[in-house]
Structures are given as C-alpha cells and as structure tokens.
Amino acid sequence: MRAIQVSRFGGPEVLARVEVPEPVPGPGDLLVEVAAAGVNYADTHRTEGSYGGPIELPFIPGAEVVGRAADGRRVLAPTLGGGGYAEFAVVAADRAVAVPEEVGDGEALALLVQGLTAWHILRSSARVAPGESVVVNAAAGGVGSLAVQLAKVFTAGRVIAAASTPEKRDLAIRLGADVAVDSAPDGYADRVRAANGGRPVDVVLDSTGGKTMLAGLEVLGGFGRLVTYGNAAREGRPMVDAGSLAESNRAVAGFWLRPAMEYPGAYHEPLAELLRLTTTGAIRPLVGGTYALAEARRAHEDLLARKTTGKLVLRP
Fold it and tell me: Which has fewest Cβ within 10 Å: 112, 256, 295, 314?
C-alpha cells in the first residue's frame, strides 16, 4: 500500500512516499480503509523528534482517520501508534465511532483531535462558567475555530478571538466571536483588555506558547485561568512564578489530549456531543485544506508557516 514514512527526524522534507505492506490488525483491532487522515501540529513535532515520549524510526505519521471498516461501517478513530498517512490503518475497535452520513470526512476529523481538545480545554481544564469572558488564541486554527463556537454553545459571555491576520480575525467573528484582536505579543495585553471593556478576563486558551502565553497570563483577573495546550511558536516552555499566581489568585492549567482520552467519560461522551452539535448545525467544523497523500510535505509546510485555517486533511 502507499504511505508516507519518516526514516529520519527533521522538517517536512523528511516525509517520503513509500510502498509498505498493509498493516495486520490484532485481537480487538479494526483495519480501516482510509478515506481521509487528519494533519495535526503534533504530527510536525513527531516528525522532528520533539514530541513527548520515545519514537522509533521509521514510522508512518497520522493519529486519526475516517474510513470504512471491513464490515462497511463508516468510522472515525485514533490510530494505534500512528499510521494514518496511508491507504489502510489499524485502530482499536472500542475507539471506532460511527460517523453520520451528514458529517463530511474533514468535519469528522476536525472533531477528533481538535474537537475533543476544544471541548476539554473549555469544560475540563478551564471549567468555563456561564457569562465568563474567554480569550481564544490562534482562533482561526483547528482547535481555536471550534473553541470559539463551543464557548458560545457553553454560554460563555464575551468571546475574544486573537489571530495573526485580518482575514483570520474576520473568520473568527463569522464563527461567533464578539470581537477579534491581533495576537502579536507586543501590545497583546492592552488590546485584549480594551476588547473586554478595559477589564481583565476570566479565561485564556493558548496553544502558541512562549511570549504569547505570558502575554495571556497578564490579562487574567482574579481566579482567572489560562490553559496551555501547545507550543506552536517553538520558543521553549516559559517559566511561571507560582508565588505570583498565588498572590493574584490566578491559575495555569496544562492539557494534553492523549492521556485525557483514557479518563472515564472523556472520549465517547464528548465526541458524541460534538457529532450531535455538528449534525444540528450548532457548530461548524472548518476544513482548511485538502491534500493528496503525496502532498504531505506541503501540508506540513503550510501548517508550520501558519498559512492555514481549520482542519487539514490528507486523502489517499
């Protein structure tokens, strides 16, 4: 079968198209003929060898697929240790979720990693309460675009989108944000406060890291929460003074989806809610770009260059 393989760590240039044997499912597994595979920031970290946990070379990237099982069911599932950038992939049977025909392949993929992340950073980590103000950094991205919409569904108050270009800020407004601001770290705190009527905010959701994360921390009010769930800027992990947090009654929470999916009620239930919200039109997962399998390198390049919005999809 055709697949994309990484034989050495590096940038998008190490993604190579190869022919490999079709994977063989074990007990409790399903073989899925891949209709589409999702592209995530985590894939770029795995490719360069900077992802948490050991990674053995060579490997096939791709943590999520949608496609047909041998019995004809259309399913969405995370892959077992990667393998999604291929014509066939193996998934755990108990993780395979039926996808309504009304939900497109790209929309379904947007709900697995990005959708579950957006749901959990709002519900489980930030624990957003009705009426609270929420800042969403990278608001036009895969997670951010869903977080903006879900914040409204979860009855947050003022939703402030932060994005890098006027086009991305306009998109966030169309998705339901009350106001959008430039996400550049310089002047970020002043712009966010002004967008919230001169007041500090209750919640900041950040996947950029570095200076942007620290700027987000500046705008939190008492009992405010910042949730960090990525490091797209690749600036390293900023140090946070615990004493300063205590003195101002602020909190910083971290979120990583992979272990979170093992918690009771953290996978099937929120994913079912996300699929329901999509079928009813309450949320609109964005498909930002569709690439042929052989274009995996370009997909990673576009993602790293922040040229994209919404979910990126590879089609075998």
Answer: 256
Class of domain 2-99+286-315: alpha beta
Task: Say yes or no: domain 113-259 is CATH 3.40.50.720.
Answer: yes
pLDDT in tens, 25-46: 999 999 999 999 999 988 999 9
- Token pair recorded at residue 273: 């809610």
Residue type at position 117: T
How far, in Å, are 65, 67, 269, 315 from residue 97 at the CA level? Answer: 11, 11, 11, 20
| 117-137 residue pLDDT tens | 999 999 999 999 999 999 999
- Pair 206, 227: CB distance under 8 Å: yes
pTM of the model: 0.91
**Nearest-CA neighbor of 156 among 197, 198, 204, 192?**
204
